[in-house]
Design a protein that fits this description.
501 residues, alpha/beta, Rossmann fold, five-stranded parallel beta sheet, 19 helices, 54% helix, binds adenosine-5'-triphosphate
């Protein structure tokens, strides 16, 4: 049919009918045939859509499983094995019934954003050969009372019908951001949330092991402490699985998964990227690989190189390069500030600088990227103090050279304050073992500024004798704009810098 076929038919048919009526013909049988014909056509078309199944058309938009396996999820080995163990309850349901074990109804996945909780839920559906339906907590939030509760009912209904249609005997319902509807009920204000949560609890209580399909609810949150205790009690979400940020091995695994469909240049080392991306989530690593490929395409190169990967790390960490024009005086100040961070870092943790850059990115005019020498999850007082010294290095350098600071240190101070807060709350200061509520604002401020003032002085005293190193290195940095960690260390070595404090 031509491009305008439909419009032509819509225009011509009424004209023909009007003409036939005008010449006195009975048009009723023609109309009837037309209606039947159109109905048949419509039915065939809609069946065609269903026939394409999960792969195409409408079915894809909601709840259609994009089947994914546990192998396609990088790292998270502990979470995966805990999850598989729990899912075996769903698979070995007959044995479980024999032993009189009550069915597992809810699994709660907790952890920071972008760590793969949704992926784990999807893989669970594949592992247990279940249908998968999903919703997000924020979808239940409506202005009208009762809508959230009826959406919960619909979700369970959808799971049951879908299982029947696809001939599956189990279904997984995944609710992301469960904290939106499952927050602590404190009475009064949030009646709509209460109704939604009550409905969820009622539906969960109605799940029995003998029911078909067997239903398992999985939920995800990064704020477990906010959840109402009714949700967490035995028989509801009583399996909690932590999904943490990946360690180096996990990051490498995730990078490899997302590098599979990208042409990597020979010699590129994903191991290097994995060690430079401490604290990155799976979602950030996926974005990093994507950005690296975009850089390669922009450069009109055939393959993704190490440099593209390194640029992508900066992009994900700091944001896109901005073309903020800085004048020479500003550039010099930024260079000295960044040298302050980098030199402090090399003094307290030799070998830890992985890049010094003067290219403005995101909100920063320059930055130093650090590489953890060793991944750690426990921090001593000395370690945190060194971290604060590195954060204050920029402001200390500005004081040495300009006798005053600039607004460029704002982010550094925020970071330093956060670190001091962590020290106080961990009982590592003269305040002793305290909680935030136990000390007055004045006491907190006094302890915090006392530590920061002392560390600021320590940083200045440490950098002052190296004034000449700054003076030698600043022009090279301004000229080069970007230096890798090893180039920077070579520069320091040339100026005979002592590399340890
Ligand atoms: P949120 O809490 O924000 O909902 P989430 O923990 O559910 O996040 P996902 O939606 O599962 O995170 O992950 C987002 C994307 O990040 C995935 O589509 C995938 O591309 C990537 N990703 C995250 N974790 C992993 C992982 N472990 N392995 C491979 N890819 C991952």
């Amino acid at each position: 049919m031509s491009k305008y076929g439909k419009e032509i038919i819509i225009g011509v048919v009424p004209v023909v009918l009007a003409f036939l009526m005008y010449i006195g013909m009975n048009v009723l049988p023609i109309l009837l045939i037309g209606v039947i014909g159109f109905s048949l056509l419509y039915m065939v078309r809609s069946k065609g859509t269903i026939g394409f199944g999960a792969g195409g058309g409408k079915a894809k938009s909601k709840g259609a499983p994009k089947y994914m396996t546990f192998e396609e999820i990088g790292g998270q080995e502990r979470a995966k094995s805990e999850l598989k163990e729990a899912l075996d309850f769903l698979i070995r349901h007959e044995e479980i019934q024999k032993f009189g074990i009550r069915p597992l109804k809810g699994i709660l996945l907790t952890g920071p954003p972008g760590t793969g909780k949704t992926l784990l839920a999807k893989a669970s559906a594949h592992y247990t050969d279940s249908v998968f339906v999903s919703a997000s907590g924020s979808e239940f939030v409506e202005m009208y009372v009762g809508v959230g509760a009826s959406r919960i009912r619909d979700l369970f209904k959808e799971a049951r019908t879908k299982a029947a249609k696809e001939n599956k005997d189990s279904a997984i319902i995944f609710i992301d951001e469960i904290d939106v509807i499952g927050g602590k009920r404190e009475g009064g204000q949030h009646r709509e949330y209460d109704q939604t949560l009550n409905q969820l609890l009622t539906e969960m209580d109605g799940i029995h092991s003998s029911d078909a399909p067997r239903i398992l609810i999985m939920a995800a949150t990064n704020r477990k402490e906010m959840l109402d205790s009714a949700l967490l009690r035995p028989g509801r979400f009583d399996r909690h699985i932590g999904v943490d940020l990946p360690d180096k091995k996990g990051r490498l695994h995730i990078l490899r998964i997302h590098a599979k469909n990208k042409p990597l240049a020979p010699g590129t080392s994903l191991e290097r990227v994995a060690s430079e991306t401490f604290h990155f989530s799976g979602a950030q690593l996926e974005s990093l690989m994507n950005e690296a490929a975009i850089y390669a395409l922009r450069d009109e190169q055939e393959e993704v190189t190490q440099e593209h990967l390194s640029m992508a790390v900066d992009k994900v960490l700091m944001g896109e390069k901005t073309d903020r024009e800085t004048n020479n005086e500003e550039r010099r100040r930024v260079a000295l500030h960044e040298l302050g961070h980098a030199i402090s870092a090399e003094l307290v943790r030799p070998g830890s600088v992985s890049q010094v850059s003067l290219a403005p990115r995101g909100g920063a005019l320059g930055y130093v990227r650090h590489q953890p020498l060793q991944e750690r999850y426990l921090y001593t007082k000395d370690f945190i103090e060194d971290q604060i010294v590195i954060a204050l290095g920029g402001a200390a350098a500005e004081e040495i050279f300009y006798n005053g600071r600039s607004t460029g240190s704002r982010g550094d101070f925020e970071q330093a304050l956060q670190l001091v807060g962590n020290m106080i709350e961990s009982g590592l200061t003269s305040l002793g073992i305290v909680e935030r509520q136990m000390v007055t604002r004045e006491e907190w401020t006094k302890a915090s500024s006392g530590i920061l003032d002392e560390l600021f002085e320590r940083t200045k005293t440490m950098l002052l004798p190296l004034r000449y190193v700054f003076e030698q290195a600043v022009d090279t940095l301004i000229q080069e704009e970007m230096m890798t960690g090893s180039q920077f260390r070579e520069l320091l070595r040339q100026f005979k810098t002592p590399t340890s404090a």
